[in-house]
Amino acid sequence: MGFRSITQAKIQLWGLALCCAIVGATNSTISASELDEAIIDVFKRNKCDACHVPVAQRAKDSQTGKLLYPAHREFSYVLNLTKLRSSKFVAPGAPQNSSLYKLIIEEKMPEGAEFCFDPSCPYPPVPESDRIIVEQWINSLN
Ligand code: HEC
Questions:
Q1: Is the distance from the beta carbon of residue 85 to the nearest atom of ligand 1 less than 6 Å?
Q2: CA of 118 to the centre of ligand 1 (A)
Q3: pLDDT at 102
Q4: 22 and 86: one domain?
Q5: What is the average per-residue pLDDT within 9-23?
Q6: CA distance 100 to 58
Q7: Does 69 lie in the same domain as 25?
Q8: Is the CB of 100 under 6 A from ligand 1?
Q9: Is 133 in contact with 38 (CB distance < 8 Å)?
Q10: Phi and psi at residue 30, in whole multiples of 5°?
Q11: Domain check: are 52 and 40 in the same one?
């Protein structure tokens, strides 16, 4: 016991701290594939995929079989990131110039969000935490 083991314990503690610092630093940089996963989750969480997917996959009334949300005909690929990235709705590296981002910020998308004053409405505005992910994703593109 004594001096030696205390020094050893200190060295071990420093090793542990250094190790945690490295792990922490690695975690704080989000990789491109993690961002891709995160943005898909944002689109699903905010139900963009009820309307902006191919007609066959859109939500339908179980009684009539008719589309519940007859959405925009052209924009049917919100979950296809390869296509979305190079679409006119996204300006790579520039969220403020991307209609996809602007419509979310202005609460025009999801459709009806701007008229949603009751938490039970089907398409509430996209929350701040998700807006940040959209911004980061567009910023990461170039
Ligand atoms: C309930 C159906 C519905 C939902 C949910 C919805 N949209 Fe839309 N979206 C529409 C319709 C309908 C239009 C066309 C509106 C128009 O032209 O006035 C549109 C238009 C758009 C456009 C512009 C297309 C263009 O040609 O300029 C973008 C971008 C968009 N939506 C993104 C989103 C995103 C992102 C979400 C999720 C946060 C979302 N939408 C959720 C129905 C929906």
A1: no
A2: 20
A3: 98
A4: no
A5: 52
A6: 19
A7: no
A8: yes
A9: yes
A10: -85, 130
A11: yes
Distance 48 CA to ligand 1 centre (A): 7
Burial class (CB in 10 A: 0-12, 13-18, 19+), 7: exposed
Can you name the residues that pair with 60 across neighbouring β-strands? 67
Distance CA 71, CA 4 (A): 73
Q: Which one is predicted more confidently, 76 or 21?
A: 76
* One domain, residues 24 and 64: no
> How many domains are contained in the chain?
2
- Is the CB of 113 within 6 Å of ligand 1? no
Does residue 22 carry a pLDDT above 50? no
Per-residue pLDDT for 4 more than 80?
no
Nearest CA to ligand 1 atom 10: 71
pLDDT digits (tens, 9 = 90+) for 64-94: 988 887 777 789 999 999 999 999 999 999 9
Q: For residues 26 and 82, state if they share a domain.
A: no
Residue 14 and residue 58 in one domain: no
Closest atom, ligand 1, to C-alpha of 70? 12
Q: Which domain holds residue 101?
A: 31-140
Length of the chain as a residue count: 142
Tell me what pLDDT residue 106 has: 97
Q: Would you say the CB of residue 77 lies under 6 angstroms from ligand 1?
A: no
